[in-house]
Amino acid sequence: MAKKGENDKIALTEKQIQDLKAAFTMGSLDQLTKHVQDAFSSLENISLNMAVVGELGEDRADFINTFRDLCEGDEGAALTGKTETHKTAVAYPHPKYPKVILWDLPDVGNPGFSAKCYMEKMEVASYDFFLIIASHHFRSFHAKLAHYLKKAGKGYYFVRSKVEADLESVRQSNPSSFNEMVTLQKIREDCLQDLQAEKVRSPKIFLISSILLSKYDFYLLEEALEQNLDLPKSHSFLLATPNISHRILEKKKDMMLEHLWLVAVVACGIRTEAIPDISVVCNVDLLVRTMRGYCISFGLEEESLRRTAEHVVQPVEQLKALVRCPLAHAVNKALVVELLIQAASRAPNLPKQLVPMASVGLSFAVVYSM
């Protein structure tokens, strides 16, 4: 949970304060807790289905693996370098968030390709959005897919992959005059011309490297998806997004601070237990599960740290030495109780509107500030 200074006040929105004030003063915490628990459960259980589609030989598998922080050969990884198509969609659940699923759809572009027949067979309504991937040029069948998806009211995004290979090719051909930004703009303009020639209006095009998501336009793709998905699904997408930039980590932090007040309300109202030596009652098991989830989302677990160490070519123990909080596996009931006792000793300040409220208000304050 987020650590706050000794004199910090709990930062809640006016709406949250009013809901809590009404619940505490009218003795209706159970009603508020049930309402908040429903919202909390919806965030915990929301599913997200991402369809990835393109020609045979495109690097869809690389993208699917990299997004899920997997390498070829890992359990659950998509097979790269395929030479044969598959006839049905293949599901690749996220290893940490199994309700977030990337679907590798059958290859497109065969002779006589019909976007309508293809999408009807794929049951287009089953997916939340589509990533149309091309590693070279966007062709007529890519455009046909987009036209069909637009009519069906589905979100779609054109993803031009393998840009790192194009950049390297141009660099080797013209080392003295090579300019990365100019080359990227040329690739973008070529994609735009290809799609506009097929009457795709204002296409959303994102240049990425499927093996280096931290570069190029992936952050723009992430922002577009986050803005266009409804709130619960946007929450799920951000959680599953790999921690490849400070920007994404800050977004996750902000999201979890918003999520924290829901946790605090539910933890103080459902299956509570008294904490010895302090005037706090709460659901410790829920707090354990929530804290582990936060650690996992930020990559504070053994496997994620190992992968990060490999990526930055540093010993994993050196990375662990920089971590200032427990790893996911170390979060247990004893640790949570210890943190609650520490939070209670700091006497967290309720917003002045909540000061007169009963002991359950203190429990909320301690849980929220631990």
What order do the helices and strands come in, and which of them pair?
Elements: H1 14-26, H2 29-45, E1 48-54, H3 60-67, E2 90-93, E3 100-104, H4 115-122, E4 129-134, H5 140-151, E5 155-160, H6 163-173, H7 180-197, E6 205-207, H8 218-228, H9 231-240, H10 246-267, E7 273-274, E8 281-282, H11 284-297, H12 302-312, H13 316-320, H14 333-345, H15 359-369
Parallel strand pairs: 1-3, 1-4, 4-5, 5-6
Antiparallel strand pairs: 2-3, 7-8
Helix pairs in contact: 1-2, 2-10, 6-7, 8-9, 10-11, 10-15
Protein model, in words:
There is one protein chain. With 370 residues, the chain is of the alpha/beta class. The chain has two domains: 14-44 and 245-369, no CATH class; 47-240, P-loop containing nucleotide triphosphate hydrolases (Rossmann fold, 3-Layer(aba) Sandwich). 50% of the residues lie in helices and 9% in strands. A hairpin with a 6-residue loop joins strand 7 (273-274) and strand 8. Helix 1 (14-26) crosses helix 2, helix 8 packs antiparallel against helix 9 (231-240) and helix 10 (246-267) packs antiparallel against helix 15. The longest helix has 22 residues, at 246-267. The N and C termini lie close together (6 Å). Residues 46-228 form the IRG-type G domain. Belongs to the TRAFAC class dynamin-like GTPase superfamily. IRG family.
